[in-house]
Amino acid sequence: MSSKSVDKASVAIAIISSPVWSPIYGMWLLYDKALMPMYQDAKSSIQEWERYRLWKRRREFPILNVKEKRRSLSVDAPIRRTIDSNTSENERKEPDLEPRLLRLPPEIRMMIWEEVLGKMNIHIEVKDRRIGATICQNPVPEDQVWRKMCPCRIGKRIVACTFEWEEYPPEGLRALPLLLTCRPIYRDVLDHIYRTSTFLFHRPEAVLLFVQSIPPTHAQRIAKIHLDARVIQKDTSFEHPLAYMPVSIRDTYKSAYPTHCTAQTTDMSRGEPQPSMWGAMSKLLSSLGGLRELRISLHGRCFPRQIYSSREGSEYVPWTLACGRGEKLVLEPLKEVARANLNMVVNVDWYASGTGEEDQSLGYVLKRPER
């Protein structure tokens, strides 16, 4: 040990042991000792409250335990027949019970299903621990989509100007009778629904839960997705960590893009990076090989910690970027979704933080409001 360090240590000991500092040092030790139990109690109370909030948040979502089962009406299930080895060849011949509809070329059958079912826009919502699907019957005009919510999402609409609520009929997709007809028709109709319908989601967790709840072979048939977050409900945030989701989703997307918000978990309180719902949704979308059209419409309030709004006098200024890093956390995870055979468009309602030249290197089309 050098002489300088010894001198510094001796000087520090001399100062602490001096008559002037000894009472202050002793009082500080007593004060710290008295506060320690209070600090421990407060810390345990906070951790208990965080665990309760985490448990309550997880209770909002359904429990997923989906496995690829071979059922009589599954798309890839083989046809099983039990034939006795002693049965003669003439007895084994079965009459041709195939409907004449199925003898038509596939292109003709697809045209028939389109006339019967149409090209549907299907809202996928998660409510009361259930995943529901509703056909969009009253879409909002394009000039009002940033201000007005589609009434199909809440299942109600206002009748005239009487401010009375009228429930939408629970019609569903109206495809169950066709699906239960026979296996070939089930395969045709299901393929038509997944390949021609546009699935409308309004939160990242709805995308994760819906895709996780259906067999992987069905998920790979989805061709069109629209994440519409132009009009969001109160307290909606896309910055939540993946810790809120069911175990199957948390285990699948451990390497998702991390979140930088403070979540109500003890691990997050320590500042440890956790995978985000936004990053997990981006990773999931990149795995859908049948996806051909992806449209994402984002309101700045979906990311309250990264993007903010402002007013200049009486004039409303569309969403202004807090900093370039904030926008990166929003747009960067979507890069892994973009590919050559995917028509991907992202609409946002905030301006660029710089000149906007970096938008050309994202790999997808990014549309901003005009200044």
Automatic annotation (TrEMBL):
The chain crosses the membrane at residues 12-31. Pfam families: DUF7730. This is DUF7730 domain-containing protein. Keywords: Membrane, Transmembrane, Transmembrane helix. Residues 101-368 form the DUF7730 domain.
